[in-house]
Specification:
Layout (H helix, E strand, L loop, with lengths): L1 E5 H6 L1 H9 L3 E6 L2 E6 L2 H13 L6 H4 L5 H15 L11
Parallel strand pairs: 1-2
Antiparallel strand pairs: 2-3
Length: about 100
């Protein structure tokens, strides 16, 4: 869940915002109605760091090995691709 606060409101209720972030909520901070920053808990920050470390060019496949069972997932995807890229028969059309 995301809670939006103006910069002034975030400043005035920083302790509460910190508790929200600690409990897993994202506190989006706005200035003149536009989002400019977010206060997140350490769990979300670590996830963001892992995503950045892989890099956008690696895509989803770059993340798979970082999780338990990721290799099994890759093997299952490869099997589906092999099955779908095999020979296909076309129906006979009497024209």
């Amino acid at each position: 869940m995301t809670r939006k606060l103006s910069a002034a409101a975030a400043k005035n209720s920083f302790s509460e915002s910190l508790r929200l972030a600690e409990s897993g909520e994202v506190v989006e901070i706005t200035r003149y109605g536009k989002p400019v920053a977010a206060l997140v808990g350490l769990k979300e920050l670590e996830q963001l760091r892992r995503l950045r470390a892989v890099g956008p060019e690696a895509g989803l496949s770059g993340l798979v090995d970082r999780f338990p069972g990721g290799g099994d997932f890759c093997e299952a995807i490869d099997e589906v691709v092999r099955e779908r890229s095999g020979p296909r028969s076309l129906p006979d059309l009497d024209l």
